[in-house]
Prior knowledge:
With 457 residues, the chain is an alpha+beta fold. The chain has two domains: 282 residues, Zn peptidases (Aminopeptidase); 150 residues, Alpha-Beta Plaits. Helices cover 33% and strands 21% of the residues. The radius of gyration is 23 Å and the shape is globular. The protein binds ligand BES and manganese (II) ion. The site of ligand BES has 17 residues, from loops.
Amino acid sequence: MNQAAQYAESHFPEFLEKLKTLVRIPSVSFAGFSEAEVRRSAVAVSELLRTEGLENVEVLTIEGAHPYVYGDWLHAPGKPTLLLYAHHDVQPPGREELWNSAPFEPTEKDGRLFGRGSADDKAGIIVHTSAIASYLRTEGKLPVNIKVLIEGEEEIGSGHLDTFLKQYRSKMSADVIVLTDTANFDTGIPTITTSLRGIAVTEVEVRSLKQPVHSGMWGGPAPDPVMALSKMISSLVDDDGRIAIPGIYDKIRRLSKKETESMLSLGYTEADYRKQAGILPSVQLIAGDASPLEKLFRLPSLSVNAIQASSRKNASNIINESAWARISIRIVPDMDPHQTLKSLQTFLKSVAPWGVEVHFSGEQTGDWWVTDPSGPAFEKAEEALSRAFGKKCVFLGQGGSIPFVAPFAQVLGGVPALLIGVEDPYTNAHSENESVHLEDLRKSIVGAVYLYEAFAK
Ligand code: BES
Ligand code: MN
């Protein structure tokens, strides 16, 4: 073990305190939440970068976007430059009453730290800043050049990425990108992510009346917009839960032999999936015969994320004037995000009954990403992570999305992107009671220490 790795191990409690400080800031990037808190989070992140020894630290602003944070250390001439990425914005807390501890009060329990952003993705920030500090406080220098970029709008789809890249591209040049924002195959199993799904999102509102009306006085002739929307939504899938939008499965790239073998070697079963996802006992798995892993990362999936018409509190004998839903499709290689969005909207419109009005808003897209994990960057990462975790590193595609990856890797001239992370199947990201496994966080920091060392050679 090098000095820096020893430092990382013995000073882990201090690094954990720094994670807690970040978690206490409710940096929710969603509309309707305080932008000032996201700015406060950016300032806290920039202070952390400075304390841990990074230079040229600044908050990078773009008109209309939540702030990014940048810092670098570029004193290793002749050595490669690593661009390290994480994001400091978080998901909304969800239903506060379902949290066992307050979402923004970091709480340790059963070897995990609970709190919104404790894993996704404030842990990702801490992995890198702690590895950097461990070198600078022991050896006084880093074995490689490092640029750190912490995004502020990842959870809302990185809408200003194009502008960001135009404005800051030259500042970002690097030989390899390392992102800490993905999940491990299981607790204690280091994992390098080889593909991500993309996404196409739309909100849809169906209207049939000028205002809600008494369901006894007016009910009968009037089309119920909730019923209309329900019919439209149910048309989106067939009886087996496969997506029924024409052409949706046409452009899917088949898994290569190597990818299939790598996937099968993990021995992941339907029972594993059921347990980890929390599927209720009587509930069947849908969408065909493909294995759960293939369905998660190489097949599209459609979800109705939210649906609204009146509310539980106001439920009364009325016909609603309108009904609303947010619908999204996770897309895979080689589907086109814009085409998918268009097909979804066109299809919804084509199945709308009774001449109801259909209005779309809130559109969002993000591209999928896939890489061939061969070459020196992946070999070095595999070795570094396996060493830190004491377990063989796994290569795996994942179902989540990070819109940043595809365009960024491309703008930097196709440099390798290493996707590693500290989430595990029990993290509950985007749900209540999000948490990070403390032992895995510590191992991830040590893994980053070894990774920088490996890249210096
Ligand atoms: N960290 C996740 C993405 C992720 C999680 C990738 C686990 C692979 C494994 C990220 O913060 C996230 O949730 N992204 C959003 C992106 C969306 C807003 C475009 C997502 O996937 O919903
Ligand atoms: Mn994330």
